[in-house]
Amino acid sequence: MSTCRSRREIREMIDKIQANVEEVKKKHSAILSAPQSDEKTKHELEDLMADIKKTANKVRGKLKQQNIEQEEHSNKSSADLRIRKTQHSTLSRKFVEVMTEYNRTQTDYRDRCKNRILRQLEITGRATTDDELEAMLEQDNPAVFTQGTLADIEARHADIIKLETSIRELHDMFMDMAMLVESQGEMIDRIEYHVEHAVDYVQTATQDTKKALKYQSKARRKKVFLVICLSVTLIIIIIILAVQLA
């Protein structure tokens, strides 16, 4: 498979993850707004999360496969190598951005679930502090909440347990990709710097060219004017000489 085709596939997979993250946000809102636990929506959410995890692992594997450092010793020209490095780093950064948004979505949902549990506990007359709730959540035992019919609290607790697992799984991926992006950051910054200065240089050169053309045009007009003046003067001299000789 060509490198160009591989990068196109990576880009498509990143776009797919991004679209799935937006769907995850919608599922989160639907679950939290429902008066009762909706198993169908929860299953759809779990499928989305599983698909994101599977696709993200594929992207990470493909990005690591493209070992840019090894291409330093290939027969590629330095210009081509810089382009390939830039493309690779751009994809890596985009992937990290999308996964960061996914992680933010997960932690936000966790906080919203936790706040809902706190409100439900208050309604049942069991006021709980954040620290106490965190201790309950860490027990990984929904029974700590079951007093009477607290099905909603139990459901939210189960959601949080799944989220904790998902967030932990993302941690290693973040560390791996963050190190890759950081190592390429300085190189990309240098390229962007040179590109910006190249654009400035081209703009300056264009302005200088316009000025030169303007000055050249003025000089040409002056030359034509001078020739005309000399011609008129010569004609006047010839006329004067002709009159005198007559």
Outline the structure in words:
- Residues 150-212 form the T-SNARE coiled-coil homology domain.
- InterPro entries: SNARE, Syntaxin, Syntaxin/epimorphin_CS, Syntaxin_N, T_SNARE_dom.
- The chain is mostly helical.
- It has a single domain (3-204), classed as Up-down Bundle (Methane Monooxygenase Hydroxylase, Chain G, domain 1), CATH 1.20.58.
- It has helices at 3-33, 39-65, 78-123, 130-138, 151-245.
- The longest helix is centred in the C-terminal third of the chain and has 95 residues, at 151-245.
Quantity of strands, as a count: 0
- What is the annotated CATH architecture? Up-down Bundle
Beta content: under 5%
Order of helices and strands: HHHHH
Number of helices: 5
Tell me the major beta sheet: none
What Rg do the Cα atoms give? Answer: 35 Å
CATH-derived topology: Methane Monooxygenase Hydroxylase, Chain G, domain 1
Distance between the termini: 97 Å
Domains (count): 1
Share of helix, binned? over 70%
Q: In one word, what is the shape?
A: elongated
The top-level CATH class is Mainly Alpha
Sheet/helix structural class = mainly alpha
Please tell me the overall pLDDT. Answer: 70
Poorly predicted sequence stretches spanning 5 or more consecutive residues = 190-203
